[in-house]
Amino acid sequence: MVAENGLSEEPDESDLLEEGAAPVLVFTADVESAGMRLDTYLAAQITSTSRTQIRRAIEAGKAQVDGEAVTKAAWMISAGERITISPLPRAPLEARPSAIPLDIVHEDEALIVINKPAGMVTHPGAGVSDGTLANALVHHFNEQSLVLPRRGGASRPGIVHRLDAGTSGVIVAAKTDEAHLALAEQFQSRQVRKLYTALVYGPIEQEEGRIDVPIGRDPRSRIRMAVRPPGEGREALSIYRVQRQFREFTLLEVEIKTGRTHQIRVHLAHLRHPIAGDTVYDGGRINAIRDVRLRVALQKLNRPFLHATRLGLFHPLTGEWMEFSAELPADLRSVLETVAN
Asked: Is the pTM of this model over 0.90?
């Protein structure tokens, strides 16, 4: 079943808060969160809403702790407490057209496949209103005199899935509501094949492996996700295959069966093989690189070595299985050459 907001993956909290929605969100405080202010704790869980907005929701009586209404933002929470909140609606965002060049891998009457560059956000969100893939797609669709798809909402017309801003590679968007629904159902039922290339720290002895651990918000950081205990995170499955071994690094192909926020980055860090260049999850590993030339190359990269290499799906009109691919961009090839030499 596809979410009402039209997104294909099971929605994260950030999805639920788009387009003015105000759902009830439920959390269970863990031991590490004991003693935190209620607004601080909730701000760490709901990263797409400001702390001020959360405080307003609490003061408006929209938060409960173990079934009892709490209207004080400074309320100190205890481990094991069940916390619910209905955030105040946000003003709807709108993706306005921007004449941003697109690297089009494939396009027909139903869908468009883009090779997204690193640094481009997929759609407008908190703090980002322009320069996104959605802005570029609206301009592209307008040039073709297309009626914008309504599914996905005004901030992401046609957008079916996402890539992190720092991740490059193939991403598909729908050009009609019918195509959006068909593609979204494929993502939801996990029929779509999503393959990534990642360079990670350290040698990996196993030629292939499965990482099957839940992922949720890191209660100590608004910008991080983390592996969570069963019942506190959402199911996440990644499968990796070794492509090439280097002295200090391993090149992997990673296939994800779910679409959690930062999934590959969190899963590989959990294996203690974080992605090269990922300063959010690498634990400072870059500082331990003795080869100055290699350390400088990774610092210049300024993003995780992660690229969406291949995407396979059934065409929403013909039912034909199609696969789209994008070669490693120049910045990643340059790092790989430095690692290999």
From this structure: no
